[in-house]
């Protein structure tokens, strides 16, 4: 094994997940291939196996505990990068329909290769989130949309909430978040026909602080959103 099975089990249990050996084997392959691929394409600064388990895998599995996702749900990860949290959700989830978006195709090449090695299927889409949010096949199409470490909450809201179905949820996963970022984010939820649903603070295994903020989509979003990236960065919601 490349990763520690005991650490993986322990960290997952902290988020109420009991991982089978079959699933742990898949995480082991993921870590091994991530480190190997990372030698040619820059995917992550975290390459030590225990750190991959704690900071990437377990951190991603927190999604299950706090989001309320269920079997059969549609789920999109915006700015998935090397696959976090989307690929762990695919590996450990039960019949979740997964779409992984990223603006950088060379990262998605790794994901495509990895899914082949893991014998798993997801829609892997090279697109900017704000473009996807205007397209009928993606707009208001997902029960859950998440993003980890991609942008400020109010910017992320404009990327993600157009993709969420009415009644669905946007789950933002971050390190510690400032009060100002949170207040601005919650104001952006309102402009995007959504409301704050939950605000959760917790710690991962090494003690680092994490924050999950969940917005629930209440009604259809104005067609003027998402705006293009130039407008979003010049005048964030
Ligand atoms: N979510 C991964 C994680 O937690 O390890 C990757 C985080 S990385 C810091 C941010 C990722 O978001 C990059 O892969 C970048 O290409 C992607 N990204 C940034 N803005 C985006 C946008 N507007 N649409 C799609 N992907 C975007």
Biggest sheet details: 7 strands, mixed
Strand order of the largest sheet: 3-2-1-4-5-7-6
Overall 3D form: globular
The CATH superfamily appears as Vaccinia Virus protein VP39
Tally of strands: 7
How many structural domains does the protein architecture include?
Answer: 1
Radius of gyration: 17 Å
> End-to-end span in angstroms?
46 Å
> What ligand molecules are bound, each kind once?
S-adenosylmethionine
**Architecture, according to CATH?**
3-Layer(aba) Sandwich
H/I helix tally: 9
H/E series: HHHEHEHEHEHEHEEH
Structural overview:
The structure is a single chain. This protein is an alpha/beta fold. The chain is built from nine helices and seven strands. β4, α7 and β5 form a beta-alpha-beta unit. The longest helix is centred in the N-terminal third of the chain and has 19 residues, at 49-67. The N and C termini lie far apart (46 Å). The mean pLDDT is 97. Bound molecules: S-adenosylmethionine (SAM). The site of S-adenosylmethionine (SAM) has 18 residues, from β2 and α6.
List its salient traits.
237 residues; alpha/beta; Rossmann fold; seven-stranded mixed β-sheet; 7 strands; 41% helix; globular; binds S-adenosylmethionine
Lay out the secondary structure:
Elements: H1 5-13, H2 21-37, H3 49-67, E1 74-78, H4 86-92, E2 97-102, H5 105-118, E3 123-126, H6 129-132, E4 142-148, H7 153-160, E5 164-174, H8 179-191, E6 194-203, E7 209-217, H9 229-234
Parallel strand pairs: 1-2, 1-4, 2-3, 4-5
Antiparallel strand pairs: 5-7, 6-7
The structure holds S-adenosylmethionine.
Residues 78-82, 84, 101-104, 107, 128-130, 148-150, 159 line the site of S-adenosylmethionine (SAM).
């Amino acid at each position: 094994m490349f990763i520690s099975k005991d650490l993986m089990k322990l960290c997952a249990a902290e988020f109420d997940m009991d991982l089978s050996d079959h699933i742990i084997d898949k995480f082991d392959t993921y870590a091994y291939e991530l480190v190997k691929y990372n030698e040619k394409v820059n995917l992550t600064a975290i390459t030590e196996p225990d750190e991959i388990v704690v900071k990437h895998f377990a951190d991603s599995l927190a999604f299950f505990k706090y989001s309320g996702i269920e079997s059969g749900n549609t789920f999109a990860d915006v700015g998935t990068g090397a696959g976090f949290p989307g690929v762990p959700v695919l590996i450990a989830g039960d019949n979740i329909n997964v779409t992984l978006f990223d603006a950088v195709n060379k990262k998605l090449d790794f994901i495509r290769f990895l899914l082949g090695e893991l014998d798993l299927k997801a829609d892997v889409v090279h697109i900017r989130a704000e473009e996807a949010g205007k397209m009928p096949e993606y707009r208001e199409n997902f029960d859950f949309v998440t993003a980890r470490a991609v942008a400020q909450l109010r910017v992320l809201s404009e990327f993600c909430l157009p993709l969420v179905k009415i009644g669905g949820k946007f789950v933002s996963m971050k390190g510690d978040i400032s009060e100002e970022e949170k207040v601005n984010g919650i104001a952006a939820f309102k402009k995007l026909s959504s409301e704050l649903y939950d605000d959760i603070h917790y710690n991962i295994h090494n003690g680092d602080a994490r924050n999950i903020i969940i917005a629930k989509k209440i009604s259809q979003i104005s067609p003027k959103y998402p705006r293009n990236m130039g407008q979003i960065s010049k005048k964030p919601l």
